[in-house]
User: What shape does this take?
Amino acid sequence: MNVLIINYKFPPDPGVASFRVAKFAKYLTEFGCNVHVLTRDNGNDGPHPLMDDIAAVDSIVRTDVMSDKIPLVNTRVTRWIKPMIDNAVRMIEEHDIDIVLHSAPAHFPLVGCMIIKRRTGIPYIVDLRDPLYTGNLDKEPFSINFYKLALRILEPKIIQCASAVVFATETMRDVYIDAYPSHKSKIYCVENGYDPEDYNDIKQQTVEGFQIVFPGKFRDDMRWFFEPFSKFVNGRSDVKFTHFGDPNREEAMQVREVVENLDLGDYVSFEGYVTKDKVLSTCMSSNLGLVVSKPNSSTYAGAKTYDYIGCDIPILGVDDGESAMREILVNFPNAYATERSDSDAIYETLVSTYEKKPPSLGNSEAAEKYTRRNLTQKMYEILYSKL
Assistant: This one.
């Protein structure tokens, strides 16, 4: 099976967006597929932890965007659409492609589905890591937001055109099945996950005391967490909270202020950006991994959830009462979900985990479900069924 993967980012581009498709590329080649990749030339040529994973890819074409002087086409994403379509058609003919796997975001390039499929006649699989319009609650109201209005118009056309639509969480899949019941048979779920091979050379640190790790983006001042955390550390001098991520975001500054006001400087460490190996090493050595859902998002499951599963450490997931993260955590005895507004539950979970110190998530069979190999096997079966 000759597969063309389209994504706006691909290693060595940084960020979560490149990881999902890179792992699909890695394991699809192991399953005997000839994989070709079409991506944007984002000008990145530095080292990347996944370069070995994509070494077996047959070809990678990195295209530039159109001129920024073209009227109404004023973003890099929209200026990439025409070069993407032209190169996709060329690659399909040149490499005798059997099927296209187009991952998003970026969302607007998905309009290529309608044009490329019409011009080539081959199956076109749309892979959505985030919702398009339906279930996309963290945008401005569409009446004042052109982006969301455009997605509202495009979404049913893309769903209609696609040979299959794949979502990254079961919750997201179910939301779209409810919205498009006539297309239920072609709507699937293939989660994000972890690759055990990424952990082979990671050296676990020796940590004294009780460590909580949070490699992620602050979305607010986290007072809802640090107030019960302040109560928790009272009389527990061996507790440490370690954060990895952008130290210069406005929210990060707000978190630092909260930590300072609560006099938690001896318990909280902000490490900034570090290597992926450093993050995984710290996670493997921690007693609890914190993952925080996007506010008011029922379809979100943070990527760090899967890192913690790979490290096999207990998880504390925090959301607004419902999120796709919960459908994952429920599989593990030592994974806990609490609401952002429930400071008592956060405090009690911290105390319970501190006292019991469970050594693992407690369900290795469930963890196996989320390996990148097994998830790519699901994707492979979807692709094969659409030929």
